[in-house]
Amino acid sequence: MYLGCFVICSVACCQLKAQGLDFKLLNRLNPNSHKPDNYWLQTSNSAYAVAPTYTMGNMVYGLLYKDKKAFKNGFETTLSVGLGIALSGGIKTLVNRDRPTQAHPDHIYSYTYSEGKSFPSGHTTLAFATATSIALQCKKWYITVPAYAWAASVGYSRMRLGRHYPSDVATGAALGIATGYLSHWVTKKILK
Fold first, then answer.
1. CB proximity list for 160: less than 8 A, separation 6 or greater
2. CATH of the domain at 125
């Protein structure tokens, strides 16, 4: 029920088509420079490296050494990431919002081109789903803080690179956190 309300509210907010504050903030964050920003490109791409590495590392370790906790952590993160990506893709199809560089080619610059849709940010969803799973599994501040700092930097990179509006990133973060908590709850019920 909460997820349904979240999706409906997100779609309603997104229909503003990045007018006002959303576009103004992105315009400030995007340097509008044609010089590649390799640091932020690598940070952005790290979402698709960290999530599978953490997930598969836990699952393989759990299977090889018969470590039930490691396998459970891998399963939980797989569920979190899978749900996040599936929901993010579904919402993108439903909302059908153009990327900032497609809607504002004279104001927003991106170093890479994509025909995909903008709302919500899949990279940010993936990063926050992974960070939330790590935080719920480890429960240590010195692991949780860096995990969320990394996820936030992925979200920032998506705006810095002109790939997403701030509302895309905020919704991706909320979606990732929600799927992290949901998968944690489901995993507790399935793998006792």
1. 29, 30, 31, 37, 40
2. 1.20.144.10
